[in-house]
Design a protein that fits this description.
Protein name: DUF4010 domain-containing protein
Strand content: under 5%
Organism: Halomonas alimentaria
Structural class: mainly alpha
Mean pLDDT: 76
Keywords: Membrane, Transmembrane, Transmembrane helix
Radius of gyration: 29 Å
Largest sheet: none
Distance between the termini: 54 Å
Number of strands: 0
Length: 426
């Protein structure tokens, strides 16, 4: 039976692909027809029937180009474009609508039909569905533009510069002392940090303060848990009654660092995940569980404004700083590894964790691929994370109330002890 079915499909491939082209045209035509459903018959330039036929025509033109003449497809495409332009020009005389979105959609429908027949039906289907979604969400897309601020657009463009422009230009080979530096991989790590911060910023921006301190602390941990710690610690002095909720926010933000570490490891060195999973999960839970307890018990105490982790979601200067820091840490790691062995790596991890955990985490995960043992990388990452959270606990004690210091400090110490114990025993 399977052989018969396969033979039938193979023998009727052109017909099946033409049917796909017709259906894809109908899909876009349904969306276009629904938008113009209030218009009378004949007033619509292109509705469901026109788009369905144009999709089928694109498939036939592609088929003719391979069986009759290579000129068939471009000539038919130009004919469809010319007819569409004449129709849009005639419509413009009656209604001053200068949008060419419908025209572009019609020409894309023709191309999707051709792709379905001669390239890949799955690719044509994905493109047609994406086109229909874009056409259907005109109001939402325009609404996002009105909400987007200038510095956010600037940040998005900078992220594209460092990822889509600069990254492909960098050499992907080992350089420097001991081959410790790979420009491509270092910059790729910079892009990874920038992307996480960018996503975290917009998660806070979209969610808003009304979602509560739980949501705010969780997503602020993606961008700047240190900034949130300082802000919430100061808030606890201004509003002592809210200190339990503020402490919960600090713990949530600091706990979010641990899933972030697992993300970095999964992307860069998946082999570290089995050794990292248990200690990192336990360290995160040691912070999350007290935070959830505080939040559930005190969430009716009042509202807290969301923290501000900086006006710009991403600054190129910050990305360059991370690149330089990563290079320095990797050079120091290579030197300390040769001079002191594993002890040098642990010393570097502890001192680096005072200022930042991302750079040393990315460096150690990269080094675990060829320079250091996975166990050494795991223990170094845990040391850096524990040190970093202890520093933030100190900030909470220095800038916040005594109760805030206790509520943050005790889970931090427990997290450190559990993480080191599990990593050491493992």
């Amino acid at each position: 039976m399977e052989e018969v079915t396969r033979h039938f499909i193979d023998a009727n491939q052109p017909l099946i692909r033409l049917a796909v082209a017709l259906l894809l045209g109908s899909l876009i035509g349904i969306e276009r027809g629904w938008v113009a459903r209030e218009q009378k018959s004949g007033e619509r330039i292109a509705g469901i029937r026109t788009h369905a036929l144009v999709g089928l025509l694109g498939g036939l033109a592609a088929l003719l180009s391979t069986t009759v003449s290579a000129w068939a497809f471009p000539l038919v495409f130009l004919a469809v474009a010319g007819i569409a332009l004449v129709a849009w020009r005639a419509r413009l005389a009656e209604a001053e609508d200068y949008s060419i979105t419908g025209l572009v959609g019609l020409l894309l429908t023709f191309c999707f039909g051709a792709v379905a027949v001669e390239v890949d039906p799955a690719l044509a289907t994905a493109c047609a569905v994406a086109t229909a979604v874009i056409l259907d969400n005109k109001r939402e897309i325009h609404g996002l533009l009105y909400k987007l601020q200038a510095h956010e657009l600037d940040a998005g463009l900078k992220l594209l510069v460092i990822s889509a422009v600069m990254l492909p230009l960098l050499p992907d080979r080992a350089m420097g002392p001991g081959g410790a530096l790979n420009p491509y991989e270092i910059w790729w790590m910079v892009v990874l940090i920038a992307a996480v911060s960018f996503v975290g910023y917009f998660a806070i921006r979209v969610g808003g303060a009304e979602k509560g301190i739980l949501f705010t602390g969780l997503f602020a941990g993606l961008s700047s848990s240190t900034a949130l710690t300082l802000h919430f610690a100061r808030q606890s002095r201004l509003a002592p009654g809210l200190s339990p909720m503020l402490a919960a926010g600090i713990l949530i933000a600091c706990g979010t660092m641990f899933p972030r570490i697992l993300l970095y490891a999964a992307v860069i060195s998946p082999g570290l995940i089995p050794a990292l999973l248990l200690p990192i999960t336990l360290m995160g839970l040691t912070l999350y569980l007290p935070a959830l307890y505080l939040w559930r018990r005190h969430r009716g105490d009042g509202a807290v404004q969301r923290p501000t982790s900086g006006q710009n979601p991403l600054e190129l200067r910050t990305a360059l700083f991370f690149g330089a820091l990563l290079a320095v840490i990797m050079l120091l790691g290579e030197w300390l590894r040769g001079a002191l062995g594993d002890a040098g790596i642990y010393l570097l991890a502890t001192t680096s964790g005072i200022a930042d955990v991302d750079a040393i985490t990315l460096s150690l995960t990269r080094m675990s691929l060829d320079a250091i043992a996975p166990d050494t990388a795991v223990l170094g990452i845990i040391l850096a994370a524990a040190t970093n959270n202890l520093v933030k606990a100190g900030l909470a004690g220095a800038f916040g109330t005594r109760r805030t210091a206790w509520r943050v400090g005790v889970p931090m110490l427990a997290s450190l002890a559990i993480g080191l114990a599990v990593a050491w025993l493992a």
